[in-house]
From TrEMBL:
The name this protein goes by in its record: Methyltransferase
Alphabetized UniProt keyword annotations: Methyltransferase, Transferase
Lineage: superkingdom: Bacteria
Cell division listed as a keyword: no
Species, as recorded: Mycolicibacterium rhodesiae (Mycobacterium rhodesiae)
Length: 258
């Protein structure tokens, strides 16, 4: 459930910095949260991991601040080092807590947006998923925050994800690839996650998924004040293959908030 062994954390963190496919996913999430966050907004990131996803948001939006929650000490330590190295540490607070039972100081705070990126597949079963979504729905209700949930989606054919990675990412380290394959296999299907969101009171969210292979899914809603005014064009964040993969992922995604 909690991803904390040193080797997995190291593979995941290194992959998030170098792997074009992972960087493309972070770019998609950052673009989505960019259009949801008002100027000077406060973001609650649930399952911050080693910090790569949140770092992409913070670098895209220099005006926002964030609190990142995770249970895994090694992940939090890695995130702390990343934010310090990137000069983002003054804008992020890290909290060790369970996303299914947040402390009142977080659950009752005035958030502008909540994100949960690449985390739900780590929850061990449908009951824990339901608890996490109930918690997210309660924070959203209490704060009027926007919401962005993205994750793997389990595919019908278990051989599809390994075959895709062999095709698009043949040179990635075996540890990283094994982690991705296990994560996709552990993920909730789009039907399972949609149904669980509805039960948690989050049935009205917009959603989209990757194509041609629907291995990623995303759900979102703008905050109570609607879509914030656009802050205009951003400088390009990605280059080379990561930029091309990000463009392909965006193009193939069936719907997105930007
Ligand atoms: C695969 S990582 C994703 C990290 C990050 N959002 C990203 O996209 O790079 C998922 C994270 O969720 C954390 N996690 C899993 N279950 C959790 C729970 N119940 N409470 C808090 N964190 C949890 C894990 O420890 C792990 O760091």
């Amino acid at each position: 459930m909690v991803m904390d062994d040193a080797e997995s954390v190291a593979y995941f963190h290194a992959g998030g910095g170098a792997n074009p496919g992972m960087r493309a996913v972070y770019d998609l999430c950052a673009r989505a949260l960019d259009v949801m966050l008002p100027p000077g907004g406060r973001l609650l990131d649930l399952g911050i991991g080693s910090g790569r996803a949140l770092s992409a948001v913070l670098r895209r939006r220099p005006d926002i601040t964030a609190v990142g929650v995770d249970l895994a000490p090694n992940m939090l330590a890695t995130a702390r080092d990343l934010f310090a190295a990137e000069g983002l540490d003054g804008r992020v607070e890290l909290v060790q807590a369970d996303i299914t039972a947040l402390p009142d100081s977080i659950a009752g705070a005035p958030w502008d947006a909540i994100s949960c990126m690449w985390t739900l597949h780590q929850l061990p079963d449908a009951d824990v998923l339901a608890a996490a979504l109930r918690q997210i729905a309660a924070v959203k209700r209490g704060s009027g925050a926007a919401l962005w949930i993205s994750d793997f989606a389990r595919l019908r054919d278990p051989s599809a994800c390994p075959a895709m990675l062999q095709c698009v990412d043949p040179d990635s380290p075996m540890g990283l690839r094994q982690d991705a394959i296990a994560s996709e296999a552990a993920a909730f299907t789009r039907e399972e996650l949609s149904a669980a969101l509805a039960v948690a009171g989050l049935g009205g969210l917009a959603s989209g998924h990757a194509t041609p292979l629907p291995y990623l899914q995303a759900y979102w809603a703008f905050g109570a004040n609607g879509k914030p005014a656009s802050a205009g064009q951003r400088p390009a964040q990605l280059h080379g293959q990561a930029r091309r993969e990000a463009a392909l992922l965006r193009w193939g995604f069936t719907a997105k908030p930007f």
